[in-house]
Design a protein that fits this description.
Blueprint (H helix, E strand, L loop, with lengths): L18 H11 L4 H5 L3 H10 L6 H23 L4 H16 L9 H4 L8 E8 L7 E8 L4 E6 L5 H20 L1 H4 L5 E9 L7 E4 L16 E9 L10 E10 L4 E7 L3 E2 L6 E9 L5 E12 L6 E10 L1
Antiparallel strand pairs: 1-2, 2-3, 4-5, 4-6, 6-10, 7-8, 7-9, 7-11, 11-12
Helix pairs in contact: 3-4, 4-5
């Protein structure tokens, strides 16, 4: 840890850490920087809390550590631009290590830990205002916190709130179940070999990743469209008389919020007899919220038995 360091990071940038918790982390655990926190385990913090008679859920501690790792990764990514090629390689390796260090691996399974973990939260507000010379006006506002989505009704709404919330949950859980295929799939006939990202107006500059679990070397600007090109390789291309097509689904998971967004699908493309290499383009898409994202590309074949193939980019920085 960094007890003697003169550097102090503002730990309150981490969601869930206020001034009181920041002071406690500094005094009790000598945590002064994001890197100090990123290098700790959940059990180290939990043990100190227990010794002092305090209680914070392990899932909340895991969130602190993951956010700290993302902030450190962002700092290292920014330094890559200013360093020599050798230093840049070393920094890239550090970023990869931080990106792949998932804090949830340190958590006990829910059945053993015996604690509830929130995966969705909504804030319901009944608001009113008084305009000069007019009667009081009322409205109802609901916000889906994790996805930063809101809905407003005039007056006091009673019937549509549950339906709206359940619709948000249904859409989100469907996206998660589809994205989780990356964990289960083993490549059989199809392999994603390269991902290329291009964001206008710099159409001549592209970011290329040629191996899963590697990082994009540059940033993406939030609120601006960008395109993704997917290159695939088949192990064999003997389909007989059958018509075989493939498509790729793309998901982006905000690592801080834990929210998965379906960025879209490529158009189905017919595979040709004897042709092994293909390239397809995802229509322009936008990530509106700045942050650190994990990208998942799931390619599947229709028309013959085949296991979907997944390509993962663990860290994409959106500013």
């Amino acid at each position: 840890m960094n007890g003697n360091s003169t550097k102090y990071d503002n730990l309150t940038r981490i969601r869930g850490i206020g001034r009181v918790k920041q002071q406690w982390l500094r005094e009790s655990l000598n945590i002064y920087t994001f890197r100090d926190l990123a290098n700790l385990s959940i059990n180290e913090i939990d043990s100190r809390l227990e010794a002092e008679g305090q209680s914070i859920s392990k899932s909340e501690i895991a969130g602190w550590i993951e956010q700290a790792r993302e902030l450190v990764a962002a700092e290292l990514s920014a330094q890559q631009v200013e360093n020599s090629p050798t230093e840049e390689t070393e920094l890239s390796q550090q970023v990869v290590q931080l990106a792949e260090a998932e804090p949830e691996n340190n958590l006990l399974p829910a059945t053993e830990a015996g604690e509830w973990k929130s995966f969705a939260s909504f804030v319901v507000e009944f608001q009113s205002r008084q305009l000069e010379g007019q009667v009081e006006e009322q409205r109802t506002k609901v916000r889906y916190v994790e996805a930063d989505q809101s809905k407003i009704w005039s007056g006091i709404e009673r019937e549509q709130i549950p339906t709206w919330m359940l619709d948000r949950l249904s859409h989100e859980m469907q996206g998660l179940s589809e994205a989780d295929i990356c964990v289960k799939a083993n490549p059989v006939n199809l392999e994603i070999v390269q991902i290329k990202a291009v964001q206008p107006p710099q159409t001549g500059i592209s970011m290329v990743v040629e191996k899963a679990s590697r990082l994009f070397p540059r940033i993406i600007k939030s609120g601006e469209p960008f395109m993704l090109e997917v290159s695939l390789q088949l192990a064999e291309a003997n389909f007989g008389q059958r018509q075989v097509t493939y498509r790729t689904q793309v998901y982006a998971r905000n690592r801080s919020l834990g929210v998965t967004t379906h960025l879209g699908d490529t158009k189905p493309i017919t595979l040709l007899q004897g042709q092994l290499s293909y390239t397809t383009l995802l229509p322009a898409t936008i990530l509106h919220r700045p942050g650190m994202y994990r990208l998942q590309f799931v390619s599947s074949i229709q028309g013959v038995p085949a296991t979907p193939n997944c390509f993962e980019v663990p860290l994409l920085q959106v500013v």
